[in-house]
Amino acid sequence: MASRGFSKLRSALLPSHSQVNQRRSTVFFFFSSHQHSRSFAAAAQKPTAAAGSEAQGGEEAVKKKRRSKKKNFIEVAQFLPNWGVGAKFTKSHWPEGNFYRVTNVKLYKSGRHGAAWGIFHQSEAPKTDEAQKIGGVNKRCWRYVPEGAQTAWKRIVTFAAASSPAVSSASPAPDTPATEVSAS
Q: Over the stretch 37-63, which tens digit does the pLDDT of each residue have?
């Protein structure tokens, strides 16, 4: 008997399924019609191509540059063979030469998060010999460091050193042949 009284009370307080569905459809119609009217209003405000330059006064609309979403460790490693085991990864805010060489990756059920282990290198020299758990794997600041990649600074310094050898004005450079000019 107690349950019967409860069901009567519940039916009196809560709306029926048909009433809920009717409210949902009304709310949906309201929002969808509002979006529809907004799209018509926006289309009406857009000037034609000929009148566009006159209406804007020669100014071009500046589009906001959209910031790309950085990736977590797993999202970076998913396209590498064997989930990036053996590859070098670094955080975007770390200085040059600091990275992890990955030894093991464990994915969670979602496939977008997980844990990873690797050997940390500081100034391109291993800090420890054994693998340790990589912290902050799920934070969005990771990037892949390709093998044999030189930084722009190293390339500039190498190029500058190679292109400007120390040349004295007294003797010609050893790799350039001496040429004689004959007077005719």
A: 555 555 556 555 555 545 555 555 566
pLDDT band, very low/low/confident/very high, at 92 (cuts 50, 70, 90): very high
Indicate if the pLDDT at residue 81 is higher than 80.
yes
- Compute the distance between CA of residue 123 and CA of residue 119 in angstroms, rounded to an integer: 13
- Enumerate residues 6+ apart whose C-beta is below 8 A from 69: 140
- List phi, psi (to 5°) of 62: -90, 120
DSSP per-residue string spanning 78-129: TTSGGGGTT-EEEETTSPTT-EEEEEEEEE-TTSS-EEEEEEEEETTEES-S
Please give the single-letter amino acid code of residue 137: V
The token duo for 25 is 């459809």
For 118, half-sphere exposure in the C-beta direction (CA atoms, 13 angstrom radius) is 26
Give dist(CA 70, CA 139) in Å, integer. 9
